[in-house]
Design goal:
With 335 residues, this protein is of the alpha/beta class. It is 26% helix and 21% strand. It has a single domain, classed as 4-Layer Sandwich (Purple Acid Phosphatase, chain A, domain 2), CATH 3.60.21. Strands 4-5-8-9-11-10 form a 6-stranded mixed beta sheet, with no helix packed on it. A 5-stranded mixed beta sheet has the order 3-2-1-12-13, with no helix packed on it. A two-stranded antiparallel ribbon has the order 6-7. A hairpin with a 4-residue loop joins strand 12 and strand 13. Helix 2 runs parallel beside helix 3. The longest helix is centred in the N-terminal third of the chain and has 19 residues. The radius of gyration is 22 Å and the shape is globular. 38% of the residues are buried.
Length: 335
């Protein structure tokens, strides 16, 4: 499918001169080049200039820290690896599921996990951090297992926000000429959840993108993928159904309206996510959607679907382009 929003070709009238036709052919060639690049504008540097890196960042998602399986040492090893790079990142973005689980876990265990997380980051991360929320970071939504009543002051998302000093999970900031948006993917669904922005957050996102100059490239972080291909691996009944069925807990159920919003803001460049513990990259309508594996691999039990424990490393450039690599840190499962 073409990345262009309008793939029609208008044929020139016969009255045009040969010079007009040649000029038109040049314009069409330039348009085709833009289509091949995803119809996204260039920013910053003059065309033809060498790319100028604006920022290097590390995206650490699905750390799932807990007392067992030597998980604290694993998270520490990942941070040490990133901090020891000869060209180390200037920013860390976390993609959620920072702790093993608070969703259906009682208070004391959840408290222990958050204590481990804060301690590791305090001692091992030497650069600014922006944290994202995952489903496992929410306390007590499964009341039958967590023993929460729902009336606690720190129930739900509030506990994680207090621990990390955040006023809101969805927020934005500017750095090195790029605009960053942190989204809250997790919408409550009974005692479970689905991937979706509630209507208030979606309107906030609409307004935030409208305020962002079209000349500023945008990077978005969500825990649950906005769009991914790897989620289809988890479909188990496509043969009997004669159709694919993707759970709303694996990919955003509101992607259609997000897509429509992105089409109005062509400076959205890359969307990072985690949740699936797999590496995945989808190029769609000029936006790159990346699932960035997991620091914990298969929840500290080794590889998950052939994906080693690791993290994303991104170089962002002034022209709105970026480079991404998934970086392993040599961890071997120990329990």
């Amino acid at each position: 499918m073409s990345a262009s929003r309008d793939s029609s070709v208008q044929h020139p009238p016969a009255a045009l001169t040969r010079r007009d036709l040649l000029r038109g052919a040049g314009a069409l060639a330039a348009g085709a080049a833009l289509a091949g690049a995803g119809l996204r504008p260039a920013f910053g540097d003059e065309p033809g200039a060498a790319r100028r890196r604006a920022l290097r960042l590390a995206h650490l998602t699905d750390m799932h820290i807990m007392p067992g399986r030597n998980a604290p040492a694993g998270v520490a090893a990942c941070l040490k690896h990133a901090m020891a790079l000869p060209d180390r990142p200037g920013l860390v973005l976390t993609g959620g599921d920072l702790i093993m689980d608070g969703f259906e876990t009682e208070r004391e265990s959840t408290k222990t996990q958050w204590g481990l997380f804060v301690d590791v980051f305090k001692h091992e991360c030497g650069v600014p951090v922006e944290h994202g929320l995952g489903n496992h970071d929410i306390w007590g939504w499964n009341k039958s297992k967590s023993k929460a009543t729902g009336d606690e002051a720190d129930y739900g998302k509030k506990w994680a926000m207090d621990v990390l000093g955040l006023e809101s999970w969805h927020r934005s900031f500017d750095r090195a000429g790029w605009h960053f948006i942190m989204l809250d993917s997790i919408t409550q669904n009974g005692e479970g959840y689905i991937g979706r922005l509630d209507d208030e957050q979606f309107e906030w996102l609409r307004a935030d993108l409208a305020r962002t100059p079209a000349s500023t490239p945008v990077l978005i972080v969500s825990h649950i993928p906005l769009l991914a291909a790897c989620v289809y691996v988890h479909c188990k009944d496509e043969e009997s159904r004669k159709a694919w069925h993707v759970s709303g807990g694996l990919m955003h159920t509101d992607f259609r309206r997000i897509r429509e919003l992105f089409l109005k803001h062509r400076n959205v460049r890359v969307c990072l996510s985690g949740h699936i513990h797999q590496i995945d990259r989808v190029e769609y309508e000029g936006v790159t959607y990346i699932c960035d594996g997991a620091v914990s691999g298969a929840w500290w039990k080794g590889r998950h679907y052939n994906c080693d424990e690791g993290y994303g490393l991104l170089d962002l450039y002034a022209d709105g382009s970026f480079d991404h690599t998934y970086t392993t840190y040599g961890w071997k499962a120990q329990g």
